Amino acid sequence: MSADSDPTCVAIACQGGGSHTAFTAGVLDRLLSDPALEREIDIVGFSGTSGGAVCALLAWYGREHPDHEPEDLLADYWADLAAEGPIDRAANSAIRWSSQLGRMGVPLPDVSPYHSPAAYWGKREFLDLLERHVDFEAIPQLLDGTEPALLISAIDVLTGEFELFRENDLSPEAILASAAIPYAFKAVEVDGSYYWDGLFSKNPPVKDFVTNRETPDPDEIWVVKINPEARDRVPKSADGIADRRNELSGNKSLNAEINFVEPVSYTHL
């Protein structure tokens, strides 16, 4: 791009995928810390779902807050999320083993998150971690009408309708709503409605950058994709089958979003 050219308006959409979205943090770190790229593009929006919603939030907040940098926030958040203490490691091992036993057909008790102390502990840990890195009370002071849009997706448990939380109504609960896996968390209440993981809805929001009149139209939408589209062979192990099932379900809504946005260029990162 020549020095006289206008920068390309770009929206960045972050697919959800649990702990795999640590990859998304690395991609955003690389994009947002490149001075040459920063001169060539104008980021007009971020969107995300589940773990991608967390990454999109941290990138957006780090760009807008004068005392933070997005790459530092992303690195610090994922470092804090790592299981370092014995309790965290024991919890991770228990979850992994129970998941593997279930895939092997070993009967395990089904425990509702409404009756599980672990679900309460997980919710508290998630919210505490978010609030250590993002001052949600300071966000209204950052909004002056020139900031990029931020779109966080969740689904209303009762109505089945998609919900987009915007930068002007962010809260820790709104981010948790996008990440609340039904078997691990209670439905998250936000303003009297109840939400589950955004993987059921828009993973991530893409077409809203084009259809929403309140957001600037991007020249390009860059999708940070976690789940591969294709595999070389049919999975045969229980773990491989479960992984591929998750990949296909995670890509279903993304592909629908992309197919809708035919006039807009998009790039898989």
TrEMBL record:
Q: Which residue ranges does UniProt annotate as crossing the membrane?
A: none
- What SUPFAM superfamilies does the database record attribute to this sequence? FabD/lysophospholipase-like (SSF52151)
Which keywords has UniProt assigned to this entry?
A: Lipid metabolism
Quick check: keyword Lipid metabolism in the entry? yes
Q: Which residues form the PNPLA domain?
A: 12-210
Does Lipid metabolism count among this protein's keywords? yes
User: Which InterPro entries does this UniProt record tie to the protein?
Assistant: Acyl_Trfase/lysoPLipase, PNPLA_dom
Instruction: Please name the GO terms of the biological process aspect recorded for this protein, alphabetically.
Output: lipid metabolic process
- UniProt name for this protein: Patatin-like phospholipase
UniProt organism field: Natronorubrum tibetense GA33
